[in-house]
Design a protein that fits this description.
1% strand, mainly alpha, 13 helices
């Protein structure tokens, strides 16, 4: 019988919820609001993770006034020990490194998202963007995996500690990181809500519903699409950096097509075009993820021949197909009203009677 620590489980689920919320909100802005099918979401998430792997091995020692030790090969153990010592004894260097990591990851992902979308979306079929990003994500993953000095090839980089590693109590450290993830998710949610209800957001929805009408109104279609891809890519990269810090490990195997599928399930399950739906989908998948892991541990301890991780993929596929068939708008459908102008008109009409 396995003993479940309710407090630690709640912290783990809420941390995942914060990270998944960033990923879901980014895709919801791109597809739910602007109608851009991004099948390369794992690419932009991985940019954040790979950036964390580089900054925590090359930049962190410099910020702490130490000499950089090559993180791969024979010096891997020494580099890992140095990172751990710095994160445990010099929290200021750790927080500065985190800030720079998020800025660098956001800049790289934003440039990539803007450039790729601006070129590909000049074509009439936006699904070409989906294919380019899908292929691009796998190409980048294979290239990074084969680069020995990038994140140590297939070995990956461990010891990528979250910024509260210096706190002696592990639960307190995890709790503080949970608060950080939730705070960033809240900022992303508030920003995206303001964007959706702005004239730019309403223009994106018009573009999603009828491109020809939006173009006829003189709107810059290609630029608008590229701008929302830039914003979504930045948010996804921040989520990817937090994902790497949460696991403490950067490896290309974590950023495959399955991750993109997970984010799509969050958005489709919660509600396409509705940020609250994206948060709901992220929460449900975070809960499912955690209890899937617990189920896998229980089955392994009981010597069961069933591989529970594969059951997770089957469940996600069934959820996606069921939602598309019976609840295409999601559990929390998008509101048709995106401005308070309707209320103003009602008050004016009421006052004139």
């Amino acid at each position: 019988m396995i003993n479940i620590d309710i407090g630690a489980t709640a912290i783990a689920v809420l941390t995942l919820f914060g990270i998944y919320s960033l990923m879901a909100i980014s895709l919801n802005l791109e597809y739910g609001v602007a109608g851009l099918p991004n099948f390369g979401k794992a690419l932009f998430i991985s940019i954040g993770a790979y950036t964390a792997g580089i900054t925590y091995t090359r930049l962190l020692p410099l910020l702490a006034g130490a000499e950089v030790i090559h993180p791969c090969g024979p010096t891997m153990g020494g580099a890992l020990q140095l990172r751990s010592e710095i994160m445990a004894s010099q929290p200021v260097a750790g927080f500065i490194n985190l800030g720079l990591t998020l800025l660098i990851a956001a800049a790289i992902a934003g440039v990539v998202g803007f450039a790729v979308s601006y070129v590909t979306l000049r074509l009439k079929e936006e699904w070409f963007l989906a294919l380019v990003l899908l292929v691009g994500g796998e190409t980048v993953r294979i290239v990074v995996r084969g680069a020995d000095d990038f994140i140590c090839s297939h070995n990956g980089i461990s010891g990528v500690a979250q910024p509260f590693y210096f706190v002696d109590d592990p639960r307190s450290s995890a709790f503080l990181f949970m608060l950080l993830a939730l705070a960033l998710a809240l900022l992303a949610y508030l920003y995206s809500q303001r964007l959706i209800h702005s004239p730019f957001g309403r223009m994106l929805k018009g573009l999603r519903e009828n491109e020809d009408v939006t173009r006829g109104l003189g709107k810059g279609i290609s630029l608008a699409r590229a701008q929302i891809m830039l914003i979504g890519s930045v948010i996804a990269a921040i989520g990817g950096a937090l994902f790497a810090l949460n696991t403490g490990f950067v490896n290309t195997n974590d950023y495959v097509v399955n991750l993109t599928l997970d984010v799509w399930v969050m958005v489709v399950l919660g509600g396409i075009g509705n940020n609250r739906g994206a948060l709901l989908g992220a929460l449900l998948i975070a809960i499912m993820d955690r209890f899937t892991q617990i189920g896998a541990i229980v089955l392994n301890m009981s010597n069961s021949p069933i591989e529970f991780n594969y059951v997770r993929f089957i469940a996600f596929g069934i959820i996606l197909l069921w939602m598309l068939r019976y609840r295409p708008a999601g559990l929390l459908p998008e509101s048709r009203l995106t401005t308070n102008a309707h209320d103003v008109v009602k008050r004016v009409i009421g006052a004139s009677k």
